[in-house]
């Protein structure tokens, strides 16, 4: 047996906090070594924090990262474990997103990332140069480029995040060059459903290359990007470790590299491909570590779950519904909480609690983060933290109902949140009177203006509160309403962080139904009893103003996600919703396309948003559309 222990280190980094990030890494490195780790890998851009974006244009920032990696090497010199660490490095006029291999107190070599994503939320090619096959050079006297690393226990390769996602990435040639273990340092943002995709892809790469693939992901949030952590180790196609997510810490597994060598020998296709590769005389440099590796004498052969090599492991304890809801709720709560803490500008979190679904979900998410962050204090300590940090404000006008007031007050009580009722009626009347003075003959205050004034008075009041209480003002609009402009600029679009701006209304309702079933909280029950309404006019209901939310969300997914024309959207809607009249379906499809196009100027002005899906409404990160456009083509 040739046993090695591989540790995955999930670290919650902050962009620019190079010293603090490395302090965290050193602590986890010692934990990994104490657990007997032979190899330990940290996330992509560990030292810089992800994503550093244009901050890497400051060369002092890049230089500081190298200094911190050298400090990491010095402080882990006595551990024996070899560590893969992510950072930015400079080579001439180029900057690289890279992985450094550290062992025995020195940096053995640096491997640059080759596949630089420029889709969805990524812009890496804007600032980084690409590594390349056969590139061999030095950076600061250290080998740099297309490298593999030889130890007394076997050969190891490094690659960075996206390099693993391509079947024709550097892993293939480095495995053919002898690497039995590939360590992938990743900062892969959370997206709904991505975990199953990651697991399958990593298992596939391990099978294709007949190697051990270890993948460690960043945990935590920076700006609107949420990283769920976790990771996998897969040996020759079989996943042997599935690390816990949403936590900072170490996960580890022992593998037998003799098994990998045996399976390579048995797989004639892999052997033939490897021999063809070797005959082409590839330029992959080999780096040998002369320092002693961590002792492997106490490592035990990995025994399968249930102590059987033939029977399946234990059945999952959760349902797909629970997995979906808990995953999304954890991601949103982490994004909110890390923004609150890491920004350093806030002491409290404020929600304009309307008694409706969206603001209720946002308050719940803030309370969920407090539970995760301060749960170690016990139930009473956690409640005290909630009372210190959270604030809820109900700001009724003449159109607000007693039902929504009761729902808001009960929700605040359920979530241990100080609650204040502050009417806006007087300010509403004063504002209308002042605006009347601005109108020319023939102009008059319309119904829309009367509705929007209420939202704007509330927003202005919240901003004044933030100035007085160092408050993080949460913007609570959902994706569905945002997509069709059912929002008010200067009103409910205001805030310092848009928490659910990329969560469709059908998902908001689904989450609240789940939470009611799970918690039985009366505030959620009272909120769900009343049809969704902005309560800016008499007898207003959102779905009557727009269309049924399942139809609206289908329009959005088909038009903005699948890039269908309005005519194609109409045809699919007819199949999805046969209970509705075809003329009604046609009207909804046409209306959606018109409202969506006319509302782009609105949603490009929203606050920073949390990204949790494959389709986000954020011009700077995901769906990049011109503000001025027409749909004559559809």
Uncertain segments of ≥5 residues (pLDDT<50)?
none
In the CATH scheme, the class of the largest domain would be Alpha Beta
Distance between the termini: 64 Å
Tally of helical runs: 21
How big a fraction of the residues is strand? 15-25%
Q: What is the oligomeric state here?
A: single chain
- Sum up the overall morphology in one term: elongated
Number of strands: 21
Q: Any idea what the CATH superfamily of the largest domain is called?
A: Carbon-nitrogen hydrolase
Q: Compute the number of structural domains.
A: 2
Rg, rounded, reads: 27 Å
Query: Which structural class best describes the helix and strand composition?
Result: alpha/beta
CATH topology heading of the largest domain? Nitrilase/N-carbamoyl-D-aminoacid amidohydrolase
| Helix coverage percent | 40-55%
Can you summarize the main beta sheet? 8 strands, mixed
Task: Based on the coordinates given, report the CATH architecture of the largest domain.
Answer: 4-Layer Sandwich
- What is the average per-residue confidence, as pLDDT, rounded to a whole number? 94
Report on the architecture of this protein.
- This protein has 2 domains: 3-292, Carbon-nitrogen hydrolase (Nitrilase/N-carbamoyl-D-aminoacid amidohydrolase, 4-Layer Sandwich); 320-540, HUPs (Rossmann fold, 3-Layer(aba) Sandwich), CATH 3.40.50.
- The chain is 41% helix and 20% strand.
- The chain contains 21 helices and 21 strands.
- Strands 8, 9, 10, 11, 12, 13, 14 and 16 form an 8-stranded mixed beta sheet that branches.
- Strand 3 (82-91) and strand 4 form a beta hairpin.
- The termini are far apart.
- The model has no long low-confidence stretch (mean pLDDT 94).
